[in-house]
Amino acid sequence: MRVYCEADYDHVSRVAANIIAAQIMMKPDCVLGLATGSTPIGTYGQLIRRYREGDLDFSQVHSINLDEYRGLSPENDQSYRYFMNKHLFDSVNIDKKNTFVPDGVEEDREKACRDYDGIIRSHGGIDMQILGLGHNGHIGFNEPDSVFEKGTHCVQLTESTISANARFFASADEVPKEAYTMGIQSIMQAKKIVVIVSGESKKEIVKKAFMGPVTPQVPASVLQLHSDVILVGDKAALSEYVG
Ligand code: GLP
User: What is the pLDDT of residue 243?
Assistant: First the structure.
């Protein structure tokens, strides 16, 4: 695993954006696996800046997002589709037809998951997967004790994730209790994985995920078994990590 330890969030965002920009330049029609959460917002901002400066072209890029709340429509400002439009897609020349987020309004869980696995498969998998890290080690919405071998599935969110994400909603009661998420199997099949972490609150889980045993109790620990992972973090998040 390559580790970039940066001074602060701004530098983390710049380095992560450099890595993604290099991927797009080397393979203009690449498939990016994209993540939500507060961590990648700065990275997306840097990608937008490069696009505006004329250094980056998204016209052939395809993107497949990790997850979506079950029950939220794309117009809901807490849906991950809305997030992606707002923080990236609306500001670059990506063709929205080439951007995929699980269908939060599909009530049939099996269909929603089967369709999404079909989308991943029809794209030939993911070239570069971007990941944030939940405080309990979740990646996408693969919560602790997730089975590593799963494709896209519907999950019950844990109390810890619901309370962590409540800050985006009017109250914890409004946070959906279920989500569709790409499975760990699909994440692990990505050719390259870039994990972005920032802030002191992530230091314990970074240590557990990358220095502890590989266990479903810490879903991100499976990344230790992937051959091409880049971890980009600030000093605060990496303070317990000894590479
Ligand atoms: C959410 C998302 C994850 C994300 C995590 C961490 O639960 N489903 O994909 O990685 O939050 O978010 P943050 O970056 O805000 O800490």
Answer: 72
Residue pair 67/102 in contact by the 8 Å Cβ criterion: yes
134 Cα to the center of ligand 1, angstroms = 5
Sites in the chain below the pLDDT cut of 50: none
Residues 87-104 pLDDT 10s? 999 999 999 999 999 999
What are 199's two structure tokens? 């802030």
CATH 3.30.70.360 fits 2-182+197-242, yes or no: no
Pocket test for ligand 1, best of 34, 36, 87, 204 (most atoms within 8 A of CB): 36
3-state secondary structure of 92: coil
Q: Where on the phi/psi map is residue 140: left (φ > 0), alpha (ψ -120 to 50), or beta? A: left
Q: What is the pTM of this model?
A: 0.96
The response to whether residue 65 sits with its C-beta less than 6 Å from ligand 1 reads no
Where exactly are the structural domains of the chain? 2-182+197-242
Query: Is residue 38 lining ligand 1, measured as CB closer than 6 Å?
Result: yes
Determine the distance separating the centroid of ligand 1 and the alpha carbon of 164, expressed in angstroms.
9
Q: Spell out a b/e string for 29-45, using b for 16 or more CB atoms within 10 Å of the CB, else e.
A: ebbbbbbbbebbbbbbb
Any atom of ligand 1 within 6 Å of the Cβ of 66 = yes
233 lines ligand 1 (CB under 6 A): no
H or E stretch including 9? helix 9-26
Tell me which amino acid residue 207 is: K
